[in-house]
Amino acid sequence: MAITIILDAGHGGYDNGASYNGRKEKDDNLRVTLAVGEKLEEAGYNVLYTRTTDRYDSPFEKSQIANRSGADYFISFHRNSSANPNTYNGTQALVYELGTEAARLGASINQELVDFGFKDLDVVERPGLVVLRRTQMPAVLMELGFINNDEDNRLFDEKFDQMVDAIVTGVEKALPLEKPTQKYGVQVGLYRYESNAEYMREQLEDQGYFASIRWEDPYYAVIAGREESLEDAMELQARLRQDGYDTLVVSM
Description:
The chain has 252 residues and is α/β, with parallel strands linked by helices. Helix content is 40%, strand content 27%. The protein has eight helices and twelve strands. Strand 10 (211-216) and strand 11 (219-227) form a beta hairpin. This is N-acetylmuramoyl-L-alanine amidase.
């Protein structure tokens, strides 16, 4: 079953978030959100966004966007900040409550970011944050290093792709996708004309076999069966050969 994740780039529009030497948190948040989303889509997740441009929505509006989307999980990306530059550094996952599915997801992402190179600031409860309190699905807010820490910014900038990969790995470990079950069939013919393939399919079904047609440019392949195991497909192949068919076991 597909998993749908809605990603939130914190702040946006007139709300810059934290800033440091001209660097704006809202821009870092959007950059990492789009990159993570692309990688998650490639991995097979359904990905939605609260924003994909420099737009402002209040935290409450972001929560409503997430709730209306029907997503299974919510992940918000931010950069942390301290009163004085280069005082603190590290990655942290914020959740509404510890011991929950959201906390497990946050811990998985946080650990991958620690292994990547950030200091570990752990998973912390923040029940007062609107995007954690108002969302109806498990929600995590990731603080991806301190925007006013030069070392954290170096990691963010110079190893951006590796950081994104670490986040995606954390998601994959916490929310593994079900791998499609491999099926096997027995090919009994290749035809240039669909009408000939259809004739063969009907002939097989008249003999009690399940059969289908698959386009394999430039031919129509007629395939009998849809077996759960290679052993079952080989048994089907033996029966078809006894009935006079030339056969080949294929994956589906």
